[in-house]
Every structure is written in C-alpha cells, then in structure tokens.
Amino acid sequence: MNYLLVFIANSLKYCKSGYIIGIYNDEKEEACKSLFILGVKSSIDNLKTYSYSTIGYYSNNNESFANIQRKNTFICLSYYNEFIVNSIRINNEFIKLSECHIIVYDDRTLIKSELFLPIDYRNDNEQDHFKSLTYHLKLVKQQPVNFVSVHLKVILFFKFIIEYAYKLTSKFYRILSLTTIGVHYHQSLESLLWLLETYRKDGKVTLKTGNYLLAVISDLLLGYIVLSILADYQNSTDLFNLLALHTKHIVHSIELTINWLMGSPWGVKLNYPLNYILGNFFLYNLQLWWNFLGIVRPLLEVSFFAFLKLGVLGVSHQIAIAADIFSVVSFHVYCIYIYAARLYHWQISGLHSLSRIFLGRKRNPEPGKVDSCPYTTEQLFVGTICFTVLLFLLPTTLVYYTVFTLMRLGVNIVAGIMSRARYYIQILPLYSTLVWILYPEFTTTTMKLTPVNGLSNAGIVTLTATRATTNWCDMYQRCKPDVIKELPQVNWREIGWKILVGNLIYPL
C-alpha cells in the first residue's frame, strides 16, 4: 500500500463522542486506498439501522474514548481545535501515520449538491474518491419520501388526467406530427408527465424539475402578456385582415422579382427562351398558390382564432401555431425553390458527367471511380454539343436558383428561430440560476483542496476540501430537463455544400 487517504467529515467537530460509521476501500487494483468517515453515533443501538459498519471511535474535546480492540476497528480519532488521528489499524496491523493523508471535507455540501454526483452513478470501479464518498453519504443521510395522503392523491389525479390525454394524442401522433402545434402539444404532455413522476419519486423540487416548473409558469405569463397586447391593439378580424394584407404584399413583391428576372437582372443578358419559360412557369405557380390561399382562407381564419385562444396555454403554443401558419403562407416559396434547385442540380450533374468526355473517361458504377473509355467521333460531337448547350443555359438557371435559394434560406431561418424560441422557453434556467446565486452549495460540481499548516499530527499531510465556484454554463447544461430533446446544431458547411451542388435544404 503506497498511502492511505482518510476522509473526515467536517461536521464531526459538532458531534459528541461515539462510534464512527464509515467504509474502507480495500480493492486490490486501487493504487491509493481510502477510508471514508461518514458520521458518528453515540450508542450501539443507533447502529442497527445502518448498513455501514463501525470502523472506530471518535472523541470530542478530550472526552474519554474507549480503545475498542476489535477486528473491524480501523481508526481512533479525536478533536480538540483540530482533528487528530491517534491510530489507524488495518487487518490488525497498525499503519504509520506518515503514510496517511487526511482530507477534511464539507459533508453538508456534498449531500446537498445535486450536480456533484450523476443520477445514474453506481459505485462500480470509480476512481473519483469524492464521487464515491458522495455516493455513500447520500445512502447514509437519505430520508424516505413521505407524502401526505392528500398531497399524493392530488399528484396521482393530475397524472392520471395528463396520462390519458398523452395516450390519446399518441394514437393520432402520425396526424399530429404533420403540424408543429400537434408535435408541441404532445411533447408538452410528455414533459408534464415527467415532471409529476419525478416529483413523486424524489419527494422534492430538484434543479431540473424546478427549472421546468418555472419555465412553464413563465411560458403562461408571456402568453397572457402577448394576448393582452393583441387584445388592446385590434380585434381578431382586423388582425387577420392585416396579416392577409402583408401576405399579399409579399406575394406581389415576389411577382415583381420574377418580372425583374425575366428582363436583364444586374445587367446580365440571359437566354431569352429559357428565361421566358421559367419566369412564366414560376408566375403561374405563384398565382396558383395565391388562389389556393383564397380558397383555404376560412381554415386560416380558424387557425388564427386558435392562435388567440390556445395562446392561454403559453407563448410556446402561440409560436407553434404561428409556425404552422407561416409554413402554409410560405409554401409557394418552397415549391418554386424545389423546381429551381432540381433544374440547377440536373444541369450541374450533366456538365460534370459530360466533362469526362474531354478526358476520355467514363463513370464506373462503383462509388468514386472512373474508367478510361475511347469515344467515337459521333459520341464526342454529340457530347460536346450537349455540354455547350448546358453550359450556356447555366447562367439563366443559376440566376433563378440563387434568388429562390436566398428566399428559401430566409424562410428556413425564420422557422429555425421559431423552433429554437420554443425550445429555449421550455428550458429556461430560472430556478437553477436563483439557486446558483442564493444557495451555491446546491450546485457544487467540483471540490477545491487546500493544505493546512501547523497541525499537531507530525508527518501527516492534511487537506481541507471545500466547494469550488461552479461555472454557470456548466450548471445550465446539467440542469436541462431530461425529457426535452436538445435541438441539433446547424451544420453550415453541409448546408453550403448542398447549396453549391443543388441539393435541397431543409428547415434549420
């Protein structure tokens, strides 16, 4: 054994003399052995309820203590202005005190902190002594969850109602998944079920459940504020007419853009026949979609009315309904973008394939391989003509593709902002931030070791373990509700490559 780490709880200085409760780690593969002192009990009768054994005796302020000569007695400890290790015995063999390192730790911080020890922690092959220590402390100090019967009945009643609604929405999830509000409503029920079940198991408001609970309350308050502002501004009919007027202006601006492209945009002379065909085709699709919006106007009015009424469920539901309305009124941009992207991709692919003719190459069915190929004169002539035609038509296609790709990117950015707004509203770290400011011991993630000088234990290295300052960003990441899935990061490099080769880009 190289050396022995003795972890002594700082709260022992306030305890009376008695038997030491703890555990000795004697794993063969451990290079450093550890002796955890978890607490003190004054009598043997108090030890029967503990699964941990007696490992010694503790004397406070020079009170007499019994030198218990038993096989499982590892340590005799006393306190008089400082902790003094009188003797340590392992397997009936006394250990030199010079081979021991004493660490006085703040047990109250380790017990209170919810972030120091992972929820799924198991004390199997763990090299972090403080995590092992925290694991044993929580087992010793944990209290059974006792709910008042009325309190428990209220929780089970709300859980039954939400669970029934969740199962009902799960049956129709394929239909609900077609709309943003359907998906958001289903996820909200799932999150509320997680909140009630977690609270029932833990018996208290944890950092994660507290964050979600305050986030729901903030969501409801923001939704009420938005509805109050809209109610003070205009009635629902006037608001919808204002929205329809802005939509008409957007469609008209797109028509003007297409007419501008059919001329000489930026002074570029485009291929007139292809330009004429593409411009009229896109104008026809735009007019067709505007006529369709006129037909489904009653449905849009119902959706907008739902936006105003379901807004009482929170601003996140309002954003979800607004995202659905925005998807409907901007669908024509998506359709036009698909036509332009497919045409551009077809031309780029054709030019790439025909360019192999000049190198005497042809495509191999195996991915990423090409073969040599002797082309005939007729093949070279036809390939050259096709390559030239595609090359000279590319600027016209590229102009339309560039304009409508920018429109599509704008729509995707707005949709991405809406989805991220809903996500961040649900994970607002209000509760954990208040705890981090007012009660930092509950958010401790690391311990700081400080050497102690002037101790009477000659030859013993003594350290004090106190909580270190927790980084807010680290605390924020750890306190996110488990049930809310994190949004994937935007891969701008992949999006740039898709734009370059003409592949379709999807909402961020």
TrEMBL record:
Keyword hit for Amino-acid biosynthesis: no
InterPro entries in alphabetical order: PigQ/GPI1 (IPR007720)
A single GO CC term for this protein reads: endoplasmic reticulum
One GO process term, biological-process aspect: GPI anchor biosynthetic process
Keywords tagged on the record = Membrane, Transmembrane, Transmembrane helix
Which segments cross the bilayer? 210-231, 288-308, 320-340, 380-403, 423-439
Which Pfam families does the entry link to? Gpi1
User: Any idea what this protein is called?
Assistant: Phosphatidylinositol N-acetylglucosaminyltransferase subunit Q
Q: Which organism is it from?
A: Rhynocoris fuscipes
